[in-house]
Amino acid sequence: xxxxxxxxxxxxxxxxxxxxxxxxxKERKSTGTGHTLCHICVPCSEGEISNTTDSDLCQKCPDSxxxxxxxxxxxxxxxxFLSIENDMLAVIFSFTSVIFSIITISIIGIFIFYQNxxxxxxNNRNLSFILLITLKMSLFSVFLFLGRPADLTCKLRQVFxxxxxxxxxxxxxxxxxxxxxxxxxxxxxxEFRKWVGSKLAYSVVxxxxxVQVLHAIIWLSNSPPFQELDMDSFPGTIIIQxxxxxxxxxxxxxxxxxxxxxxxxxxxxxxxxxxxxxxEAKYITFSMFLFCSVWICAIPAYLSSKGKHIVSVEIFAILxxxxxxxxxxxxxxxxxxxxxxxxxxxxxxxxxxx
Length: 354
Description:
Elements: H1 2-23, E1 27-31, E2 39-43, E3 48-49, E4 59-60, E5 65-67, E6 74-76, E7 78-80, H2 88-113, H3 118-121, H4 125-140, H5 151-185, H6 198-222, E8 226-230, E9 237-243, H7 247-270, H8 281-303, H9 308-339, H10 346-353
Parallel strand pairs: 7-9
Antiparallel strand pairs: 1-2, 3-4, 5-6, 8-9
C-alpha cells in the first residue's frame, strides 16, 4: 500500500514544483478534484501576494501598494499626474505658455508706445490693455494645472482661470458693443449717442465679470474642488487628480464663458462688413468663432479622458483659446503699426472715410 502511495505523492510534488517554475511567482494551494491529499498551485489573485511556498491563502496588499512581478511582496504604487519633470507634454505646454506670454507682453509694450495713434485709439485702447493683461494671466494659469495636485491648487486652478478668462471675454463683448453703438450713433437723431463713451464699456466688463466672481464664491463655499486619489482605474497606479467638487458648477462656469463668447460672435458678425478704417468686428468674429470651436471640441475629449489626460485637454483648450484671440485681434494691428506706419495716421483714416 505504501509502495503505491509514494509515487503518487512524488508526482504531486513534482507537478507543484513545475507549476511554480512555470509561473515565476509565489502561489497558493488549491484543493484538487480527486484525492483529498492532492493539491495544485494556482497564482494569487490580482492585488494579492504569497510570501511562502504552498500557502493556503494569499494576502491582499494595502490600497496604496501593489504586488511585485513575483507576487511575493507589496510595493508602493506608482503615482500618475502631469509632471514637468517626467512628461514631455507638460514641458511643451510650459514652453508654449512662456513664449506667448512674452509675445503678449511685447504687444502690450507696442500698444503703450503707440497709444496715441489711430489704430490703438480706434476701438478703446483701455479695453485692449485689459484684454491683453487678462490673456497674459490666462497663460500663466496653465502652471496651476501642472505638477502634483493639492487641495489649494485644485481650488485655485478652475476659479482663477474662470474669472480671468471671463474678464477677457467681457472685454471682447464690451469692444463689440462699442463698435455696434458707434455705427448706430452716426444715424441722424439716434438715441444711441448718449451711450457712446467709455462708461458703458467699463460697465459691461464689471457686470459680466461680477457674475462669474459670484458664481466662484458660491462654488468654493458649498462644494469646492479637492485632491482625489484614484486607485481603481489603472492597476498598480494611483492617479492623483482634482475632483471638481460640483460638476454642475464647473460646467456652469464654462457655459457662462461660452455665452459671452457666443453673444460677442453674433454681434460682431452683424457689423463685420460696416465701413470703417479700423473696424475690428471681423477680427472679433474670427476670434470668438475659434474660441467656441476649441471648447466645443474639448468638452467631449474632456469627458472621455482620465487622470492627467483630462488636465492635458483643458490646458490645450486654454492655450488654443488665448493664442487664437491674440492672433486674430492683435497680430494684424501690430503688423500695421510696425511695418505700415503710413496707414496709422489720422490723415489716412480721414481720406479712407471720405
